[in-house]
Amino acid sequence: MYDVTVIGAGVIGCAIARELARYRASVCVLEKSEDVCTGTSKANSAIVHGGFDAESGTKKAEMNVRGNAMMTKISQELDIPFKRNGALVLCFSESERSGLETLCARGVKNGVEGLRILSGDEARQMEPNLSDAVCAALYCPSSGIVCPFELTLGFAENAADNGVEFRFESGVTAIARTASGYRLETDTGAVETRAVVNAAGVCADLVHDLALPHAFSITPRAGEYCLCDKSVGGLVSKTIFQMPSERGKGVLVTPTVHGNLLLGPTASDVEDRAFTATTAQGLGDVLQTAALSVKQVPARQIITSFSGLRAHGDTGDFVLGESAPGFFEAACIESPGLTSAPAIGAYMAQLVAETLGLEENADFNPIRHGVVRLNDLSPAARAAKIRENPLYGSIVCRCETVSEGEIVDSIRRTLGATTLDGVKRRTRAGMGRCQAGFCTPRVLDILARELQVPVTAVRKNARGSEVLVGKTQKGGAAL
Question: Mean per-residue pLDDT for 26-37?
Fold first, then answer.
């Protein structure tokens, strides 16, 4: 019998789990996939929003501003990259200026500091590559960029180090009320728990309906992106938005914390809650729309494209609270969900703790150390690290300068990687210009060795994604 069971190991579920670890409680996280950060949390804009877009008085606005304010401390505690690079919202005609003024006034009301409206020339002084058509811009200095993989992993690893149990490939199939709480039927057996926290992302409405009468619906909203090489990562230094619409914040142009340039997303509603394909039309729309914001969009420097799903709810706001005795929900979390995650985690954990009467955990340790990045070390520090562990002297991913030591660390650490994608998200091996064209065989071998399984058992991600199936002939190469 657990005190609390969290359904979903995305950024929201992992943030809640970490905050629950601040209390003396037995906590379990159930995730239907093979790892944390496999859904919406892995494929988004990686923006820490300032908080000027959400309607005043909503949970979105409150959690956005609070989460933004918490991000500096969170990044230090969890050892993750985060940068307050600022943001500009562009308008291209005088008729749009009133929209900027509305955003600015809303941001001030929401508690966002430092907002101001610039002329087109002032904006181009900040960002010389902005389009000549820009006539004004809203400047938000508190906006930032973060790595969504590392933020989610940081929450999860720190939660696990503080006693939270994670059960993967354990999708919830049924929920029943019991005298002492709830019984959850999962792919790996039944779970008894005093309380449930539904943080199931695009499936949160389906999880809700397993336990309670239908109350809200979620539509998966697909967004397609283009990621450009680091050689053009300096095209802009700030996150560049266009005026938002009812379908979201639109196509942006932004640097990433790792030095790439990101373009996107589109916004199209789909029925399939696992739909992450890209389309020629969608990627074309990304490039065409981005070209309105900046000069000479570097289409020839695109190294990959991807698509993610947002949990667009019909409630108009985040669903946060206790929907039934002992049944809590963090649902309909679309943008600015990544930014809001620290605040949602604290809010939901406090609500659960007060309801269950949980005591604070004086032994909670908020510090997590990430994988040591050889590429981030000085020459002297690199040499010292290699002397300490010679595996750091063996470079596996040349594009991102990822060593064997980093890959081994990613596998052996708390909630360690068990798949190619798991290694990729923890170390960036395979995220460079060649997109794993050279390093995949070595990573496969390292995973097989460290997990003590045949190389044919190593998967890209979920079950059924084994990369190799056998050998072409006796003693020959694997397929």
Answer: 98
